[in-house]
Amino acid sequence: MVATTTGAAAEHRRPGPRGGTERRGRVRRFLDRYWYAYALVLPVVVVVGGLVILPLAQGVFFTFTNINEGNIANPVLGREADYDVVGLANYLNVLSGDPAYGSFWGVLLRTLVWSGICVAFHYGIGLGLALLLNRPMRFRTLYRILLILPWAVPAFVSAFAWRYLFNADYGLINWLLGSVGLPTPVWLGQSPVAMVAVIIVNVWLGVPFMMVALLGGLQSIPGDLYEAAEIDGATPWQRFTQITLPGLRPVSSTVILLGVIWTFNMFPVIYLITGQNPHTRILITYAFERFFSGATRDYAIASTYGVLILSVLLVFAGVYLRALRSQEAD
Amino acid sequence: MDVTSLQTSGRAGPSGGRRPAPPRSGHRGRRSPAASFGLHAALVVASLIAVFPVFWVLVTSFKPDSRAIEASPSLINESSLDNYARILAGEKGDFLAWFGNSLLIAGLTTVLAVMLAASTGYAVSRFNFPGGRGLLFFFLVVQMFPFAVLIVPLYNLLLSLGLQGSAGGLVLVYCTTAVPFCTYMLKGYFDGIPREIDEAGRMDGLSPFGVFWRLMLPLARPGLAVTGFYAFITAWGEVAFASAFLSAADQSKTLAVGLQVFVQQNRTEWGHLAAASILVAIPAAVVFYLVQRFLVSGLAAGSVKG
Amino acid sequence: MAGVSYVKASRVYPGNPPVRAVDQLDLEVNDGEFLVLVGPSGSGKSTALRMLAGLEDVDEGAIHIGGNDVTHTPPKGRDIAMVFQSYALYPHMTVGENMGFALKLRRVPKETIKAKVAEAAKMLDLTPYLDRKPKALSGGQRQRVAMGRAIVREPAVFLMDEPLSNLDAKLRVETRANIAALQARLGTTTIYVTHDQVEAQTMGHRVAVLKDGLLQQCDTPRNLYERPANSFVAGFIGSPAMNLKTVALTSEGAVLDGLTVPLPRSVVAGHDAKTITFGVRPESLRLTGGDEVGMKLTVDLVEELGADAYVYGSVDIGGTAERFIVRTDGRTPPSIGSTVNVTLRDDNEVHLFHPESGARLETTKAPTA
Ligand SMILES: Nc1ncnc2c1ncn2[C@@H]1O[C@H](COP(=O)(O)OP(=O)(O)OP(=O)(O)O)[C@@H](O)[C@H]1O
Ligand SMILES: [Mg+2]
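That is the input. Now the predicted structure with magnesium ion docked in place:
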């Protein structure tokens, strides 16, 4: 038998003689408890935080200046920076919708339409394919591999493939359309048809992610729910709306949010397929045009667009998450 | 809950007790032949659409440039391996050096991003520490970050860190874009591993780091595979950062950058471009094939708990 | 090996209001003892156990193992092993690796580990399964692996949190006996959590009863049964449960329907309330012929268990129907719906509690301990 040392324990609990000791004790307990967690996240906070917050801060600063290629500090040429602070001028110019600054509102509208259409198709087709794939059948694994494939193709290879297919003169798509007697538009020219083309490509690119995520979501819905519903006499459609869709909600809400954010900033597809085409211009590609085009390289306006993009998305995410939460509360 | 069924990794998802839904079919048992035909027809069409663009590039990659632009396409038209031979021989740029660079950068990005995302995902999943939720929200915001427009500040930052023009700087930038989503995914995966497993490990004498290394990582292998795939794809085909942050010397380019330059200079050499594209796509396809069976469960775990 | 003591140990979950999951627990477990923590769901048993394991913070008080204060020691420094309700076997390791893992972490030589694992496996009939993964085992086998993982370590203390609750009834009884025998053989201090009072009474050297985070009583199974410290313990321990009724108190004694049970003068005198909580176990009641004084019990249900039968029925006391359970001879049970006469076997076999506090009021009966 072991005698207990009650005295020592009481000693341990006695509060420190002064507040300072108490506080130090609390700090030590806090570190004792959490230092593992902080040690684990420290690398990420340093890398991600450093590479996001510092550039963002500098980017935000740029939006209040007239910085461009001509006046930025250039260590190669040994040139000092000589840009000026211009206050809110950039924001005013951009938000005025002036075509010289990219017709902000029109482009924003196009960006919203682009994101909305793309994500709607991603989700709709992804869900349809996931439902098909979630049945027992032959070649299921093969279908799954083939359907996910577009995700694995590097973006600029896909862009190249589609540009080749869409080519007006020797592209396969126009050859097909022509051989059945349909009109053969110049797909990637200076017309709204180009927008249709990039949407097709982006849908093709984005469906696999949605499909895979939703397939996982479907597989996590307990099978006995369907059995119970079937016993209750639910029709297949009722089972879909009453069990499948609610069961997919957690997955859906996440992937739709991510899908909108990613599509909103989907720069490579449009840029690699149609280049600087005003008919396919969305916020991020315009910003990049400002940034890279010609001799001017207007970093200030590009950064202003960047900050505006971030703001639009933040507002969207805020509204979206709030809507989700209030829906959940019902 | 049946903890030990956890390892049925393939498609069952990471959480022990959850059983995958038996695939639904309108009617229990047999499908009618018509329904079966419809199902397969739909999937065959969808698969064709998914695969065709790449397939067509493959077909074209064997054709000489002049044949690649014929108005009435055909599968085989003076096809040969000449395009590949010329590219690999370095006629169109230092292809092998680009390939090596890409492999190095994508490989480093994958390893680093997975490690960072795993440790963060584990911390957020297991330790209820002040700031954890904030961190996740911050990661959501990072996804919205228009990196393409902040190339200049990023460039300045890398320059002041002495990383500009080196593979290291580029790897860090890629990690920044890949880690947030990877963290979400892995956090979801870790959430599916019962806490008792950690606690048993702690009782057996592991520190929290030990639990992470010897229990969580082995158990989250499917999640790690998916995360690695995502990071690899992010880095492998990227053009804008790679052209901005790597030195302009030809032998330090990545494949994507080299080919992009090649595309811009040789707008008509479709045959060669196609062959080069196929060469770029092959490593990505290999990685994809290795992880594809984990994709469904791994991604779902991340999205469900996101 | 070592004793364990909780010294006014509390676990308070922050919240509004804060949850005192374990409240000022004072408990000593002797070296080599098998102590069972029992209580209803949510009473803080698991929390108390996990505090000892180091998996839960100790917000107030202290915990000692083998005389050392381990209040703030991480789990690995406490030399304890735990068997979880879900077993928590490592899915990616074989049975053998699961059992040897702790030793491997301590850099015990491979041969030693192998020998110890083999020995434990033999003890638990696990030898044929050593190379299997846990998912390929039955529930009972997994349970034994979890035990084996704890045994191999030869810790100072075993902790078990409802280790049998995932087993079927028959296996549970069997395993219960095996665990008790194993503990007796190894002589390792063991703290065992269960919500099943039968398990507690059959396995423990001593049983500690918890309710709402507060220790109600800690004693041998026999004392717990015969001298419950309060009405909660009285109602919780024993199956079927003790008949506990709060009834009117007169100078004659406690008034039950037609029956007035004379109470010891010491109790009646020292008690100023008009009522008293009166407890009598089913086996302390008996059915009688109509000529004796007794309560009129209307039979609702008869549970025949072979030798014995339990009669469930209701008695009208002061206008309300009170449920009573009576044990009787299994060969001649009354029929359902009939009315029988019930009386006490022995006026001394009653338990009296304060109607408000529930605390035990001493009767004259001498303690058996
Ligand atoms: N993280 C927590 N935060 C707040 N309260 C908690 C937390 N964990 C447990 N509790 C509360 O502490 C009390 C004790 O919980 P505990 O798990 O110890 O009960 P138990 O006796 O083991 O019950 P059971 O038999 O159901 O396992 C419960 O009322 C529970 O609600
Ligand atoms: Mg419990």
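Chain A touches chain B through 107 residues (CB under 8 Å).
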